[in-house]
Amino acid sequence: MGEIRYPLSINQATTKVQWTLREAVEGYAKQDVHGIAVWRDKLEECGLREAARILSDNGMTVTGLCRGGMFPATDKAGLKAAIDDNLRAVDEAVAIGAQCLVLVCGGLPEGSKDIAGARAMIRDGIAATLPHARAAGMPLAIEPLHPMYAADRACINSLEQSNDICDELGAGVGLAVDVYHVWWDPYLRREIDRAAKADPGRLLAFHICDWLSPTKDMLTDRGMMGDGVIDIPDFRAMMENAGYDGYVEVEIFSTRWWNTDPDEVVATCIERHRSAC
């Protein structure tokens, strides 16, 4: 514990309430953090060209653009609109030099109970987006979400499901592995190894935070590393042993940390990256 093997990135969600994109970039860089994952709403707020300039001027590595996905829809027109939005997201990711476009795949369409059908739409949506992403050189990173989000945010809930899609669709699709969403999975080690054996480049992103017990809110009560029950050093070792050598990205949705001075949040991320990861 404490040996830093990977550089640190901070996902903009960690300080999304306090800082604009410019403020986040400058605030992270001020404390010598030069990795960031950008959110599309903050990108739109800033403007694509200006955002690209700010990121470049501050020497930032963009570890991901959040988010694409949200494919399931009630009809074909809705699915086409989702695909069109993902094509735009690919272009935005390219414009800011992101390492991948993170896909939060989407839950059940309104009024539906057909989770198998929703998963089929996700597969079809990724397949439809993939040719453009390949041509642009932008990897698509499927991020499986915890099963508690299956209804409304993502009904791809395990690394096994994600690997199955990657195996079917081939090059250009990989995984964003978030400890918060998959730490509970009894097949975690197997599926991380499976991803690496199938394609050394399939492990596209590694997100960290902690699971608090009890958790008071499904969305906005993630913990700072070391404050919860996830064995993050062991998780990191799994990723390392599978050959992952990219950034470690802190992504914390938390009202507690959104109500904390953002400079303190960044400083705590840095310290916990050293002591708890």
Topology as H/E string? EHEHHEHEHEHEHHEHEHH
**C-alpha Rg, in Å?**
18 Å
- Specify the oligomeric state: single chain
Quote the beta fraction. Answer: 5-15%
The spatial strand order of the largest sheet comes to 1-2-3-4-5-6-7-8
Give the biggest beta sheet. 8 strands, parallel, barrel
Shape: globular
Q: What is the fold-level CATH name, i.e. the topology? A: TIM Barrel
- Proportion of residues in helical segments: 40-55%
Give the name of the CATH superfamily. Answer: Divalent-metal-dependent TIM barrel enzymes
Mean pLDDT: 97
Tally the helices: what do you get? 11
Give me the secondary-structure category: alpha/beta
Number of domains: 1
> Which CATH C-level class is it?
Alpha Beta
Low-confidence parts lasting 5 or more residues at pLDDT below 50? none
CATH architecture: Alpha-Beta Barrel
Kindly report how far apart the N and C termini lie. 6 Å
